[in-house]
């Protein structure tokens, strides 16, 4: 049943995809317009690799925090990515020092 509906809606999805991409290229690449609030949300979701449903499931405060980071600005995006890498490395180091990790390593040696 579901596949039939997906096949029926496929042309509509293709048209929507083409319209979105043509509009994006025209407005922001060719005409160099500024991003609006909807575009800020879209770019932030893309950077965070979130689907629209996941974004809507976030608390309003969390969404505002992400938007306040201004991840659509390339410099701020690179700075945020660097901070994330440092935080991930710190978490990895903490895990490597934890007793759980040491137990796991001893278990794997056996």
UniProtKB/TrEMBL annotation:
Organism the protein comes from: Hanusia phi
Cell compartment(s), UniProt: Membrane
Keyword Flavoprotein on entry: no
Name of the molecule in the record: Uncharacterized protein
PANTHER family in the cross-refs: DNAJ HOMOLOG SUBFAMILY C MEMBER 25
GO cellular component: endoplasmic reticulum membrane
Keyword terms: Chaperone, Membrane, Transmembrane, Transmembrane helix
UniProt KW Kinase keyword: no
Membrane-crossing segments per the record: 6-26
């Amino acid at each position: 049943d579901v596949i039939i509906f997906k096949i029926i809606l496929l042309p509509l999805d293709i048209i929507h995809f083409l319209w979105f991409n043509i509009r994006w290229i025209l407005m922001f690449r060719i005409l160099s317009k500024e991003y609006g609030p909807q575009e800020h949300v879209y770019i932030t979701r893309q950077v965070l690799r979130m689907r629209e449903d996941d974004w809507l499931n976030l608390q309003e405060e969390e969404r505002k925090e992400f938007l306040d980071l201004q991840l659509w600005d390339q410099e701020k995006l690179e700075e945020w990515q660097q901070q994330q890498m440092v935080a991930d490395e710190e978490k990895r180091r903490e895990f490597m020092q934890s007793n759980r990790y040491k137990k796991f390593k001893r278990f794997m040696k056996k």
